[in-house]
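Aim 2 progress update. The chain analyzed this quarter is reproduced below.
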Amino acid sequence: MSVAGTKTFAAVDLGASSGRVMTGRVGPDTLRLTETHRFPNRPVHLPEGLRWDILGLYGGVLDGLRAAGPVDSLGIDSWAVDYGLLAADGSLLGNPVHYRDRRTEGVAEQVWATVPPDDLYRATGIQYAPFNTLYQLVAAQGTPQLAAARHLLLIPDLIAYWLTGEQGTELTNASTTQLIDAHTGDWNRPLADRLGIDLALFAPLRRPGDPAGTLLPAVQERTGLPGPVPVTAVGSHDTASAVAAVPAGRRERFAYLCTGTWSLAGLELDAPVTTGASRAANFTNELGIDGTVRFLRNIMGLWLLQECMRTWELTDVTPLLADAARMPALRYVVDAAAPEFLAPGDMPGRIAAACRATGGPVPRTPEEITRCVLDSLALAHRRAIREAQHLADREVDVVHLVGGGARNALLCQLTADACGVPVVAGPAEAAALGNVLVQARAHGLPGDLASTRELIARTQPLTRYEPSGDPTAWEAAARRTEDARPLPA
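Predicted structure tokens:
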């Protein structure tokens, strides 16, 4: 709780591979983050498809809050697009479907027959991804669960509902559904009506910093937290919280890379970019903290390496990275955004097949495949950041790389080499820090977004990587991978 001008906040941060509860002690010159509990996030393959173990995640959240001890507030962030359906009495109608489930295959073409892709992009500013909530809801039409549903809550809002008994839809996450108008920040009702999507399922919109209820007495008893404990809406899409924690200076011209299972590469803007060129490049306009727009591209990210390690039955990445660093640079490269890498499965085999299909050399050993993944991700980062600058007509002098990838020195250096500008890596727990700092602002600790970023820069360990090597080698490698698959017309 409050001690000598500081306050303590709990950040529930749910990632695609693990969840954690962090506590943050925040004051005018203090920002200390402590992990109190980490727990796995293991999706479950059921006969009907791939599902999230949402009850296991909720149990992990309760265990983490018990370990956290007294706090002034708590906030919840998670991955985007997925949701739980509730009956009229608030009970959950089945486990939430995983965004990597195959139910949305072919659904985009069905949607585009009603709303052409250009119209859809102008209406929402959201990139095409086969798992966007819009496509999931169209895929679910006619199912018993959707027919019985009276409420729909995105994952962090579902956890908040179980903690407080109150329903809401936080805006930064809602913007990823492809049902929000990026220009107005409200639901696009004409679009939903054309596709037969009932927006009445969604709870009222909340914005970061809004109150989201207080812990129920039963939750307080289970966690041992003295009450009342307020729950505060944060940037509940973990990328929104992570971008809020980018330690950029007030006058820096920066791009950001939020790295983990996914890499999110882009710029922070004041207004969306919804041009035809932006749609063709598959950039998205997600809403951020304080009315900002996250203009970015989704890149497959370290999921590629995570799936390889699962296939190899390896758990320690450190020796693998050391071996990969000794491999020849840019010998093996693939298009890291290729759709064949999306689903779980034999990732090493898919990577080898992709190299074989281009007529290039084929990686065979774990260290060769790992180097292929990291070189390919650096190339994808390069391409996304260069295209973002062009589309938004904005130059950058530095790339801030935050999230789990900040611990991967080889990836950070390769990204600096590929982009040709310095990379500042850290903080690694950016989503939790952004979560904590939005709560701190809502609970009386002064400061605008720039001030909170300055606090992060003063208090968190950061590492700077200067570009090195031969730029022409990266240009040649980029030409091998940048024959991008065109979007369907």
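The longest strand covers residues 30-40. The chain is about 40% helix and 20% strand. These observations will guide the mutagenesis experiments scheduled for the next reporting period.
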